């Protein structure tokens, strides 16, 4: 089975936005966004995803990528 890869770090770098700035704009704790950025989550709320997309002016597909060749689950 493949794996979903989170690209939040790449999109943040492209937008030159820090984790603290994104946290303030989205209204999500810095520690939770850090877990999301580093792929240490197993789920994300659509409301959170929507807020991140609005703050970063991007689409969900910019943040999520499916790798069919990757092994294992997304839970670490």
Structure description:
This protein has 76 residues and is mainly alpha-helical. The protein has a single domain (3-65), classed as lambda repressor-like DNA-binding domains (434 Repressor (Amino-terminal Domain)), CATH 1.10.260. It is 51% helix and 11% strand. The chain contains five helices and two strands, in the order E-H-H-H-H-H-E. The chain has helices at residues 8-15, 19-26, 30-37, 46-56, 60-63, and strands at 3-6, 64-67. A two-stranded antiparallel sheet has the order 1-2. The longest helix has 11 residues, at 46-56. The protein is globular and about 35 Å long. The model has no long low-confidence stretch (mean pLDDT 92).
Taking strands numbered 1, 2, ... along the chain, how are they ordered across the largest sheet? 1-2
What's the CATH architecture? Orthogonal Bundle
Q: Structural class per helix/strand content?
A: mainly alpha
Q: What percent of residues are in strands?
A: 5-15%
Largest sheet: number of strands, sense, barrel closure: 2 strands, antiparallel
The count of β-strands is: 2
Q: Give the CATH class.
A: Mainly Alpha
Rg from alpha-carbon coordinates = 12 Å
Give the H and E element order.
EHHHHHE
Q: What is the mean pLDDT?
A: 92
CATH superfamily: lambda repressor-like DNA-binding domains
Please count the helical segments.
5
Enter the CATH topology name: 434 Repressor (Amino-terminal Domain)
Shape: globular
Which regions have little confidence, pLDDT < 50, spanning 5+ residues? Answer: none
In whole angstroms, the N-to-C terminal distance is 15 Å
What is the count of distinct domains? 1
The multimeric state of the shown protein is single chain
Helical percentage:
40-55%
């Amino acid at each position: 089975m493949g794996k979903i890869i989170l690209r939040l770090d790449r999109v943040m770098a492209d937008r030159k936005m820090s984790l603290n700035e994104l946290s303030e704009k989205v209204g999500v704790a810095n520690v939770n966004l850090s877990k999301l950025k580093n792929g240490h989550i197993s789920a994300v709320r659509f409301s959170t995803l929507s807020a991140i997309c609005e703050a970063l002016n991007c689409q969900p597909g910019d943040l999520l990528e499916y790798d069919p060749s990757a092994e294992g689950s997304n839970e670490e």
